[in-house]
Write a structure and sequence with these properties.
The structure is a homotetramer.
Chain A: H1 18-38, H2 45-52, H3 56-62, H4 66-91, H5 97-114, H6 116-122, H7 131-150, H8 161-171, H9 173-180, H10 186-207
Chain A binds a DNA duplex (21 and 21 nucleotides) through helix 1 and helix 3.
Chain lengths: ~210, ~210, ~210, ~210
DNA sequence: CATGAATGAGGTTTCATTCAT
DNA sequence: TATGAATGAAACCTCATTCAT
């Protein structure tokens, strides 16, 4: 849980009234849209507010500064993906290794593709202030969940569960990112899940004692 | 070589005279240093020129704009890594699969770590204008080199060499990036090569008919 | 009483109902507190309202704009000091000159020190819009009162009572301000009354024919 | 000398080239002009630049921020006055007390009136950040100079030279300020020097043992 | 060729004030 | 009446880029 995050990056209020919630959500969505249509270097608070149909002032009532807005968007995205993987991991406890891997890959890719817009827009924001924490937190969440799952595999046993599950988690990132950014051969898009399963399963079987 | 790149991003001249080369290199290094010490959002042309010991005007004699400078830096970095892998791939032709993988991982990680400063500084620049091409170009270069190598493996044969070699290339990226950005468990740093080898080899062996 | 003051700066109502009076006073006190703790450049209507425990909207029901609020605060402060001096002057009629001076100095310094917070916070507001009038009005009030007092002195007689009493009034300001702003040697704080008496008495005796 | 002043408030460069010097001086003068014609609360960096006939960017090449500009203006003014008094004090060493006082009053009032524009514009800036130091520094400079002078008076001797000279220095401020801000009865303008002399001399004679 | 002063559009952020609820 | 979300003009400041010297 993001209990600890730099004060300066926290939203200014957690809106509970309905009007506020509409507003804050509009800003949120607008941020992603601008990110997509204009790119990171044209993402200005004014533009986000404009697209959200509110004034800049309103934006600043909910987020103390631009970073905080990006932080929130990135946080939500990472949390979404991490939670999806976590849930899949929980469900796959005690299943055979191959089933586990298929489940995780499926969850990961689906989450990324479902929020493909966000995903594509957000790669590359990590280079900004203090986002490292968020990425680290999400990685740990996923790593831990995967570790907890792997130890319950009936048909495999791992020497160094921490390293193994971290590799498992990060191995999926490269190919997926390449596909989402359309730098990969188009065919890979269609067989991505298959391939990722093969990648991770091959690795995990090698690492099993 | 990136035969096609937006005219606006090309350097103004390919300096062949010695004084020019010294200057252009100083700017180049200064750019990386600023990137590292100040971060992307504090990278200004003036600051780069200052650190390079020249005036802004001079900088603009070699690069038509800021993007071109970043473009050049990124290009050189990617090219360095890609070429290192390519060379390793060439050398590994006709070797057994495992030897191939070890050689490639070694080359990739070594290149990244040797230029660890550049690497760390440059992740996240890709989110800027027109860099996608460069990344794609480097990926293709690597992918092609790996493909050409893999088909010569005496102990393996692949159905879809394009997809397989692209997966091979991108699979290494995720874990390596995590380590370089220090988001990985510290132990992973030490066993990274080992683990990447296991990851890629496991995959390739599964994919071999 | 400031019979003439720009319409825009007048409070919206002279609250006579008890609830209103509580509110307006809370705003008033909050204004001074914010001025002290945050400084003039952080004095915002929202902050004042917050600290007063009311909403901005409410604040604007009692003061048509920010200037009016400051105006009122400054007015009350100056009036307090002026009235204190005026009262002391009245009481000192027909007393010997030295007694007069001691009484005035005592009243002036006491009033300033009692409301030392206000005083410190308010110096420097006069540089804002239309406050000159208030200062002038207060000066005149004091000057007039002092003049009326001085002419009753049994042991002195002055050629130009207007000039003399104005000098009397303003001579105390400089040293007092310096002490309040802690720019004076600390010792001066303790002997301020003594010194001011000496200053004014020396002057007045010289000016007496 | 203002050897120590907050780094953030120091000018960015001490221009030595002629073009720069013209520019920096234009900005300086423009600042005072704006202060006079528009008032403190309308003093914006853009407006100053405009009036100086340069762009905002240029302004910021010489002053890192608005405060620094004001700081510089105030510093120069205070220094001017302080130095004038200091010089007069030096010249008056060993003269009789009355001559001393006349000389100091003359220097003080003349300095203020000569730079009456600056003086009028600058009263009230002290309420801004970190200017207290400057005022304190100037006060000390004057106080010290006056003290050094007073001890050489052949016809007077003071118990507490620090307090006495500080009182001397600050006593002149109140009436002078009142006159410059035109809150005083008009006649006072003409007899100001006379009156200030009387004020200070009366005080000093009383304090002399 | 090199310099660096000058430019000014454009970015972030604040805050006095209004008005629907 | 009281509220506080929304407004948007306007402030401060940066920085890629040019061009006279």
């Amino acid at each position: 849980m993001p209990a600890s995050s730099p004060a300066a990056l926290r939203p200014r209020r957690n809106p509970s009234q309905s009007r506020s919630m509409v507003t804050v959500d509009a800003i949120f969505q607008a941020c992603i849209q601008v990110l997509l249509k204009e790119g990171m270097h044209r993402l200005t608070t004014t533009r986000v507010a404009e697209r959200a149909g509110v004034s800049v002032g309103t934006l600043y009532q909910y987020y103390p500064n631009k970073q905080a807005l990006l932080y929130a968007v990135l946080e939500r995205h990472l949390n979404g993906v991490a939670t999806a993987v976590e849930t899949a991991a929980l469900r796959a406890h005690h299943k055979p290794l191959e089933t586990m891997v298929r489940a995780i890959v499926e969850a990961f890719v689906t989450a990324k593709i479902e929020s493909i817009d966000e995903a594509r827009a957000l790669y590359g924001i990590a280079s900004e202030l203090a986002c490292a924490e968020l990425v680290t937190a999400a990685s740990m969440k996923v790593g831990t969940a995967l570790g907890a799952m792997l130890v319950t595999a009936p048909d495999a046993r791992f020497k160094d569960i921490v390293v193994t599950s971290y590799m498992f988690a990060t191995a999926m990132v490269g190919p997926t990112k390449a596909v989402l950014e359309e730098q990969a051969p188009p065919k890979l898009m269609r067989v991505l899940r298959e391939q990722l399963t093969s990648l991770c399963l091959g690795y995990l079987q090698r690492e099993s004692v």
